């Protein structure tokens, strides 16, 4: 892939994409099966799906006229019925530590008030892209800047996949390669609750995992959820990816306050769903439990003890996230000694625990700080958004 030149960054459709017609299908949203059905529906062979996906994802080509292994007739027809349109970049920020943040407009009119953020975090062993699944979020966790905005709307599968394509494209143009590709890992830890946008999430994940898509291994794609239990079971049944669960409190009393969805799916239901998620998977399968550390709220020795008790002997890794402050949050990050003491208390009981290093501090690129530019007239919060569970196949346990 490295040899295949990706289209130059200048060629990226930014303002020009405003002319895109709503009737054209954005191919970023079609997984291989849907893409094959699309071509068959237009009287073409299903094999065109593989060809076109290779152009898009392996070679980074979005211009149909450059897809030389398609017939001339099809190359001419495609621009009328389809487009390959990544989100438009409104702003980019680079941190001193190599972290990069993009502000992206996802609506066709490029409205900057409907913008989301994606963050690239290079490390020695890997390079992670943190992507958004919704514009805003309805779930209203008390310590989260995205949650404060309420939900504007779900992203489409094309808008989710488009973030990854755009970042991969931009990074390759800058020569940031890790082997064949720029991005090695994807985490759904940007704006939004991915399982509240389940319908778009699944095809997007399929494209990330597909050899004809981004070809990422299942351990390198992580969905982070605040605990939408029914969708955790559906995810388990439909795609195979790593799961991170935003626990943040070891008791229902405290979690009800910090993560309000707990009132609907309390800890006993959540932990049972976590157990079902890893049951029957390979030996090393585990859930990553995220725990934001808020000074004086959930970082005391009794919280560590209760957390140990809650997790018991489960296959688990704990990721402690020192609170990332934002204006008016009302919370504080604990002192380093308190963070260490909390981690030590978990280690002492045999729990694998890491503390998330803060990256991109100078550009507000850390977890919970992504706010995009959401100015919705119909801001919706948890109370307004029924979490619907559609009829589903029985989970494979
Ligand atoms: N909605 C999903 C994924 C996006 S948030 C979820 O809640 O899991 C990604 C992670 O950042 C979650 O664990 C979330 O609880 C955490 N987070 C949110 N706000 C934060 C903040 N201000 N400081 C540190 N972590 C935060
Ligand atoms: Fe939504 Fe996650 Fe923020 Fe909670 S922490 S408000 S679920 S984005």
Short synopsis of the structure:
It is built from eleven helices and 15 strands. The chain is α/β, with parallel strands linked by helices and 397 residues long. Iron/sulfur cluster binds next to helix 4.
Keywords:
eleven-stranded mixed beta sheet, alpha/beta, binds iron/sulfur cluster, 30% helix, single chain, 397 residues, binds S-adenosyl-L-homocysteine, disordered N terminus
Strand content: 15-25%
Terminal residue distance? 37 Å
Please state the structural category.
alpha/beta
Given the structure, what is the number of helices?
A: 11
Give the proportion of residues in helices.
25-40%
Bound molecules: S-adenosyl-L-homocysteine, iron/sulfur cluster
Mean pLDDT: 88
Taken in chain order, the helices and strands follow as EHHHEEEEEEHEHEHEHEHHEHEHEE
Low-confidence stretches: 1-21, 388-397
Overall form: globular
Radius of gyration: 21 Å
Largest sheet: 11 strands, mixed
Q: What is the number of E strands? A: 15
Describe the fold and architecture.
- Helix 1 packs across helix 2 (48-58), helix 5 packs parallel to helix 6 and helix 10 packs parallel to helix 11 (336-348).
- The strands form three sheets. Strands 3, 4, 5, 6, 9, 10, 11, 12, 13, 14 and 15 form an eleven-stranded mixed beta sheet that branches. Strands 1-2 form a two-stranded parallel sheet.
- Helix content is 30%, strand content 18%.
- The two termini are 37 Å apart.
- The chain is built from eleven helices and 15 strands.
- It is an alpha/beta fold and 397 residues long.
- The protein has helices at residues 32-41, 48-58, 72-81, 145-149, 157-173, 198-209, 229-238, 252-258, 267-278, 301-311, 336-348, and strands at residues 25-26, 82-83, 88-94, 100-105, 114-122, 127-130, 134-136, 151-154, 185-188, 221-225, 242-246, 287-293, 316-322, 352-355, 373-374.
């Amino acid at each position: 892939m490295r040899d295949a030149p990706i289209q130059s960054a200048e060629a990226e459709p930014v303002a020009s994409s405003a002319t895109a017609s709503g009737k054209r299908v954005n191919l970023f949203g079609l997984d291989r099966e849907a893409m094959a059905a699309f071509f068959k529906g237009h009287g073409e062979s299903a094999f065109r799906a593989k060809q076109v996906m290779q152009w898009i994802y392996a070679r980074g080509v979005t211009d149909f006229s450059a897809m030389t292994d398609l017939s001339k007739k099809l190359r001419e027809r495609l621009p009328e019925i389809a487009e390959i349109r990544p989100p438009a970049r409104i702003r980019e920020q680079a941190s001193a530590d190599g972290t990069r943040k993009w502000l992206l407009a996802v609506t066709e009119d490029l409205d900057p008030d409907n913008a989301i953020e994606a963050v690239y975090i290079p490390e020695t062993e890997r390079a992670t892209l943190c992507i958004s699944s919704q514009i805003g979020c309805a779930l209203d966790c008390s310590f989260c800047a995205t949650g404060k905005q309420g939900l504007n709307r779900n992203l489409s599968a094309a808008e989710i996949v488009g973030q990854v394509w755009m970042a991969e494209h931009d990074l390759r143009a800058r020569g940031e390669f890790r082997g064949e590709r720029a991005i090695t890992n994807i985490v759904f830890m940007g704006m939004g609750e991915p399982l509240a946008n389940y319908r778009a999430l699944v095809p997007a994940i399929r494209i990330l995992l597909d050899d004809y898509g981004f070809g990422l291994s299942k351990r390198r794609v992580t969905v982070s959820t605040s605990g939408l239990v029914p969708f955790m079971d559906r995810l388990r049944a439909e795609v195979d990816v790593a799961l991170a669960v935003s626990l943040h409190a070891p008791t229902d009393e405290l979690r009800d306050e910090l993560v309000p969805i707990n009132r609907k799916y309390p800890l006993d239901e959540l932990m049972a769903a976590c157990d079902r998620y890893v049951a029957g998977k390979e030996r090393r399968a585990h859930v990553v439990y995220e725990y934001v550390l808020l000074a004086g709220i959930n970082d005391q020795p009794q919280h560590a003890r209760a957390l140990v008790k809650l997790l018991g002997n489960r296959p688990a890794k704990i990721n402690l996230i020192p609170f990332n402050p934002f204006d008016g949050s009302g919370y504080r990050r604990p002192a380093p000694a308190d963070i260490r003491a909390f981690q030590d208390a978990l280690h002492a009981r045999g729990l694998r625990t890491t503390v998330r290093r803060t990256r991109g501090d100078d550009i507000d690129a850390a977890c919970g700080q992504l706010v995009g530019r959401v100015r919705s007239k119909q801001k919706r919060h948890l109370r307004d958004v029924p979490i619907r569970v559609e009829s589903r196949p029985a989970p494979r346990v």
